[in-house]
Amino acid sequence: MPEALYFNGLDDLIRNALAEDIGTGDITTLSCIPEDAVSTGVLLAKDEGVVCGLSVAARVFALLDPHVTLTPRVEDGAAVAKGDILADIQGPSRSVLTGERTALNLLQRLSGIATRTRLAVDSISGTKTKIVDTRKTTPGLRVLEKYAVRCGGGGNHRFNLSDGILIKDNHIVAAGGITEAVRRVRRLAPHTLKIEVETENLAQIDEALAAGADIIMLDNMSLEEMRKAVAHIAGRALTEASGNMGDKDLRQVAETGVDFISIGALTNAVRALDISLRFR
Amino acid sequence: MPEALYFNGLDDLIRNALAEDIGTGDITTLSCIPEDAVSTGVLLAKDEGVVCGLSVAARVFALLDPHVTLTPRVEDGAAVAKGDILADIQGPSRSVLTGERTALNLLQRLSGIATRTRLAVDSISGTKTKIVDTRKTTPGLRVLEKYAVRCGGGGNHRFNLSDGILIKDNHIVAAGGITEAVRRVRRLAPHTLKIEVETENLAQIDEALAAGADIIMLDNMSLEEMRKAVAHIAGRALTEASGNMGDKDLRQVAETGVDFISIGALTNAVRALDISLRFR
Amino acid sequence: MPEALYFNGLDDLIRNALAEDIGTGDITTLSCIPEDAVSTGVLLAKDEGVVCGLSVAARVFALLDPHVTLTPRVEDGAAVAKGDILADIQGPSRSVLTGERTALNLLQRLSGIATRTRLAVDSISGTKTKIVDTRKTTPGLRVLEKYAVRCGGGGNHRFNLSDGILIKDNHIVAAGGITEAVRRVRRLAPHTLKIEVETENLAQIDEALAAGADIIMLDNMSLEEMRKAVAHIAGRALTEASGNMGDKDLRQVAETGVDFISIGALTNAVRALDISLRFR
Amino acid sequence: MPEALYFNGLDDLIRNALAEDIGTGDITTLSCIPEDAVSTGVLLAKDEGVVCGLSVAARVFALLDPHVTLTPRVEDGAAVAKGDILADIQGPSRSVLTGERTALNLLQRLSGIATRTRLAVDSISGTKTKIVDTRKTTPGLRVLEKYAVRCGGGGNHRFNLSDGILIKDNHIVAAGGITEAVRRVRRLAPHTLKIEVETENLAQIDEALAAGADIIMLDNMSLEEMRKAVAHIAGRALTEASGNMGDKDLRQVAETGVDFISIGALTNAVRALDISLRFR
Amino acid sequence: MPEALYFNGLDDLIRNALAEDIGTGDITTLSCIPEDAVSTGVLLAKDEGVVCGLSVAARVFALLDPHVTLTPRVEDGAAVAKGDILADIQGPSRSVLTGERTALNLLQRLSGIATRTRLAVDSISGTKTKIVDTRKTTPGLRVLEKYAVRCGGGGNHRFNLSDGILIKDNHIVAAGGITEAVRRVRRLAPHTLKIEVETENLAQIDEALAAGADIIMLDNMSLEEMRKAVAHIAGRALTEASGNMGDKDLRQVAETGVDFISIGALTNAVRALDISLRFR
Amino acid sequence: MPEALYFNGLDDLIRNALAEDIGTGDITTLSCIPEDAVSTGVLLAKDEGVVCGLSVAARVFALLDPHVTLTPRVEDGAAVAKGDILADIQGPSRSVLTGERTALNLLQRLSGIATRTRLAVDSISGTKTKIVDTRKTTPGLRVLEKYAVRCGGGGNHRFNLSDGILIKDNHIVAAGGITEAVRRVRRLAPHTLKIEVETENLAQIDEALAAGADIIMLDNMSLEEMRKAVAHIAGRALTEASGNMGDKDLRQVAETGVDFISIGALTNAVRALDISLRFR
For A251-261, how does the pLDDT look when each residue is reduced to its tens digit (9 = 90+)? Predict the structure, then answer.
């Protein structure tokens, strides 16, 4: 069961999406459909996958017209088969037709992410490793896409540059080494944030550990290197495998013993799940 | 060479994306990088494809910090190979690092769309058919994604519900037939818009033609049905093939003689093109 | 009966108008009127004309205070006489008084446009010509003002620069002729838009027809020139008379056989219809 | 010489107007006009009147494209004749064409208001009476329209419900009389605001004077009644004539000796001044 | 009993404050508290003072979640003792916890202002002088803070630079004297605003009176100077004592006979009143 | 030397503050000051303290009028004495006068916070304890106020509910104990965030340590209890003293050995530092 979605910008996002899709008015619908016509329909999975975004789709219709009700039959995070009914919809025909595309664009995309995440998570089942996302999300949709990752069984890496510390190679070079970089961050950052350091070899790992890093990123390492790194760190810090993980054999990576595998492709190489709105 | 991009909401979109990614501040960078440090680097293709969004990426940095300059080496729409340098970047290190992810997220996504479109366009080269997009775009990014389709050599279908008329089955049913639906639309719509009607068989095509439809959509027809439809219409209206075209053999579809093939997958089943920012 | 109004920016427009009129508070009303006072009243026509904007006025009060109800007695587009009651209003006295001016400013202006349009439409009754508007509307109010034109019996020309193509003399000169201009537009524009070309003489008309123009604008032509142009075009394209039409004898223009007469004065030379809110 | 214009929402108003007019892009111009084409032109008066809004028009182009320069040849408030050149414009052809309509819509409307105001002001020249506006302005444009009134030689009444006190009949009835209404307002309102009371007869005038009203509105009075009222008040308060003043003989009203005549028609019954952009 | 609060930007202010405090989600609460948990609690005064902002706090919760109800037990402006219950709150536990800090931050601050104002007002009880605020308010909160001053028994000076005229020394110098400054203001300002002039000595007071100033500010005068100024003005204009009044013996100032004492410290040297949300 | 300020909403905050203060125009200044007048002046400390916000004040003027330049003579975080000049200002007189109040309101408030923080920091000098802020900030100004705390030598606690985990008593009760609460948080929260638990006694501390809490808040404990708690924890977690710390003897608290003391009063019981703009 996925965790709750909270996103204080959701209504603005949806209003913006509706404005983008409707322009100055849905002329075809306003012309053809009588104002008092009412429709009933369902949201139908046309492929198998993990559904995500039903409450978002419901909000699309609610903001367009409070008289439309979309009632989910499954929860976000549910695995669905082709032909499954995901939700019932009922309301003024005009509003259902006008809101359809915006609702589906969101629902299909989020479900695509949840589906892809579930595949990754399932591929490492039984290991102690957790699949997490990155900041490679669609501009404007990050909170929703990270929610979709959770619905697919993954975890979230930091949401933005202020709620997580990640010291990368450029930071290290500019600061004059890992030790100094960590020291500087500790002076400025809230004490409530962990410090993660990107490393490429054991020497860097040792320096990071000595500096008190909480999380060590193993960046673009081979399986063998990762295995050694994990053994060397030996629980003194959390470990995260990173670097084109979308194209790797995730089970092999997990079996190196890393705590986390972060995968950009969860959110930036996604096929929308095919879902359609079918009228009765 | 792609057509010009104009999008009056671009700055708002970028500011919103930067806010989403930066939160209350890029703590790592502010801590590690001195305020007066300056960096030079390049945008590098790490895979082959069609690039799109360089001016968008430049605008990301310009809005974050006018002292950063991103100078493209190629134009949007250019085919690039792995290892090609796409642009030079120069400016305050802090701003380059803080804006990097937002710029790449946009650039990679748009390049992914342009790349996918180019593949589709190339697959039907030599035919008179044009590949066009749909409204299955990412909420908030439609104008950019349709620009990416043009950069890939495709054309645009309507941008929203008010700048194009498309009479679908639900409209037809509600109006009581194609003839009445077209009549109603003609009364309300500006005379500057063409009228497109979705059809599934020859009877509907005949009714649409008689009603004066300008464009006839051939929805979910077999190759054989499309071929017959095109011959039957015989230039009396434009023709558009539609319905899961992302999974079809496009050359076969084009050879039916349709004027347009509209493909939702151009924008909703996209793998971001791998592009990275490399410091010197 | 007028067509439906849909305008996704209406609430923002109204909130902005209320903020403009209320400032930091309606001091007079807050001082004099008890919080629990309730009023009943009517909207009264103080002149004859065509009413437009009752649902807009209702929305003004609804956004200010959901406890105010404005119930129209007539529909938008109705012809009303001096003394006619247009709507009943009921609710907290403070809110009725505070919202009055904003509601009336919108209602009176839209009714003024509908009234002026009706006069133009009536003046050519019996002809096949349609009166349409232009982009000479009040900044911020275009969708509402074009709705008012429809309520007055007119039709709409394009809403903006992206949902209609109009190739004017400057475009023709820059492109190097009508033929090339049309060719360029066809390459960029969605295939769902018609192409209109502004012409001043028969030579241009011939070039436009040859290029495949869908609509030919007859700009600033004399009645005689228009008559000849219409005869020459002979149904191969739609025709639109344009150029200071607000000052012309419209029946004479219509009798040249043009399909459309576009009139900027419908929206930029308007006297607000006198409507007042009368308490009981 | 008109007073300075300051309006902190001007840029938002213009951006909104440009978005409304441009939609997703000026397809015709982007297609036909090369990106590097540059144009020179003038703003030309096609009718006589008082010009207002040149700096607003300049700002329209500046916000669309900083490379466009619009240089006024006359100041706002200048009387112009048919054929007068009002300003020179120079810049990228695309931007000039795309911004033209929005700039002219604002400029023509404001000039129409200034022109109408000047007529009213001139009609009472030699008297001590001042013409002022009302809150019957176009929603969203109030600050600009009140600036246009000043450019025409008129003065401004209050801008909104919080920067001026006007006790009307409904306030009087609800408060239980003028005396109590004034007392309540004085308790709540900042001491920096004058108090105006609407009156219909001498008894009300006496009560308002006794309550300490600073301004007395003479509402819908005959010329004879106004003359008596002014004599009776005898300078103990300012006087303002009100009530359909747009249809009255203003000189006769002014000769009653009132200090101010407020006229809603200055802003809600306006014909845009004909101004065009002519390319060289 | 305090006057009514009206503030058309309140919802935007609250949404902004909630967004600032919630970020991308209240992770702790979403993790620990079940979605269907419901809580009951009270707002409790932990110090004595004057409460202000209960309707604002209620609005915070209403905008976050309409299922939360906050029911005041006292009115804004009420004096409360340590331990007094100010309001009852009931609703979904998650929403109560997530909105708590934003609601309290507003409520405590406004109550702090009301409390400080009440002290000032009480200190001059029995005199005819009125305590008023200034523009030294927190950016973004002015309307609320001026409401808090009214709840504490004070009055409001002008809300902004357009709803009140205050000619200060720099204005006087630039205009070339008080007489000319007043003349210039009278030409531009709406006739509905009073004119206040800042003075430092009797000569300036005489010039201001002669120019027709409505209010005379006695700036940074000694008690003796103020006493003389008031006697000299003798009711020909309102008088206002100003200049570090937050540190003065207000009763002594009031006993000079001034009409108003304006105090910046009412809003810029404030200790939040200690109020907490206690669950049952 | 204080750390860098980055705040992506700063411009919006300032524009909003200017709009609030200017309303529809600074009538006094526009009337009295010629458009071409230029002024020179300084920002002057009228009391001793720590200055903060000079770049914010500079931005106020820059956004109002790019021709105004404010050049700091000291850096944010500098201790200043009464009479010290903080910055030079130069530019059009109108803009300097119109922006003065908004700039000072921000500068004075931030300097007040920095001053109060410095006092707290100095009072525990020589200890290893760090003073940090809370979320008891002014709605809308949090990022600025937390910057002011840093300028005063303090550190920042979490900025909002999503970039820090703080499990309070209500969370513990709802989850059924500290152990379960920590477990639930760990499942949902990004692994980049530390987990802080509020405790009131040693039993809770033990449970928190066992659950793996990173930070332990000692809430409302006596000095003796804190001392025992710190000794008991013995470095297994960070420790934070909390609970009305604004009224405590901070040195005594620091000497218990806690790592952090969080003080709400740093931001919600602040006296603006007296700073004025003096013209030359």
Answer: 999 999 999 99
List residues of chain E with CB under 8 Å from any CB of chain A: 15, 18-19, 22-26, 30-31, 35, 94, 98
pLDDT, residue B3, reads 42
In a shared domain, residues C198 and C63: no
Looking at the fold, whether A258 and A275 belong to one and the same domain comes out as no
CA angle B178, B183, B189 (to 5 degrees): 115
- Put simply, the answer to whether B159 touches A34 (Cβ < 8 Å) is no
According to the model, what pLDDT value does residue E233 have? 98
Q: What is the domain-level CATH number for residue C26?
A: 3.90.1170.20
A142 and A212, same domain (yes or no): yes
Considering chain E, what is the average pLDDT of its residues?
Answer: 95
Whether residue D140 sits in one domain with residue D89: no
Contact (CB, 8 A) for D177 and D160: no
E262 Cα to chain C: minimum distance (Å): 20
Touching chains, A (3+ CB pairs < 8 A): B, C, E, F
Question: Which residue in chain B has the smallest CA separation from C238?
Answer: B191
CA distance B19 to chain F (A): 6
Residue C18 to residue E7, Cβ atoms within 8 A:
no
DSSP states along chain C: -PPPP--TTHHHHHHHHHHHHHTT--HHHHHHS-TT-EEEEEEEESS-EE---HHHHHHHHHHH-TT-EEEESS-TT-EE-TT-EEEEEEEEHHHHHHHHHHHHHHHHHHHHHHHHHHHHHHHTTTSS-EEE--S---TT-HHHHHHHHHHTT-B---SSTTS-EEE-HHHHHHHTSHHHHHHHHHHHS-TTB-EEEEESSHHHHHHHHHHT-SEEEEES--HHHHHHHHHHHTTSSEEEEESSGGGS-HHHHHTTT-SEEE-THHHHEEEPP-EEEEE-
Residues from chain E that touch F136, judged by Cβ atoms under 8 A, are: 101, 104-105, 108, 272
Q: Which residue of D has its CA nearest to F36?
A: D4
Instruction: Tell me, yes or no, whether D184 and D235 share the same domain.
Output: yes
Check CB contact under 8 Å for C8 and A26: no
Which strands form F85-92's sheet, in the order they lie side by side?
Answer: F69-72, F85-92, F38-45, F275-279
pLDDT in tens, F139-184: 999 999 999 999 999 999 999 999 999 999 999 998 999 999 999 9
* Residue B1 pLDDT greater than 70, yes or no: no
User: How confident is the model over D27-74, as pLDDT tens digits?
Assistant: 999 999 999 999 999 999 999 999 999 999 999 999 999 999 999 999
Helix axes D142-151, D93-123, angle to 10 degrees: 60
Chain B CB contacts of C167 under 8 Å are none
b/e code D211-249 from CB counts within 10 Å (16+ = b): bebbbbbbbebeeeebbbbbeebeeebbbbbbbebbeee
Same domain, A37 and A161: no
Which CA distances in Å does C78 have to C111, C150, E133?
10, 12, 52
Q: Is residue C168 among the annotated active site residues?
A: yes
Asked if C82 is an active-site residue, the reply is no
The CATH number of residue A227's host domain is 3.20.20.70
Task: Check whether residue E137 and residue E249 sit in a common domain.
Answer: yes
Helix (H) or strand (E) holding F150: helix F142-151
Q: Which domain holds residue C41?
A: 3-114+271-279
Kindly state whether residues E132 and E214 are assigned to the same domain: yes
Instruction: Count how many domains chain C has.
Output: 2
**Closest approach of B4 to chain D, Cα-based (Å):** 7
Q: Within chain F, which residues score under 50 in pLDDT?
A: 1-4
Which of F30, F108, F161 faces E27 most closely, judged by CB atoms? F161
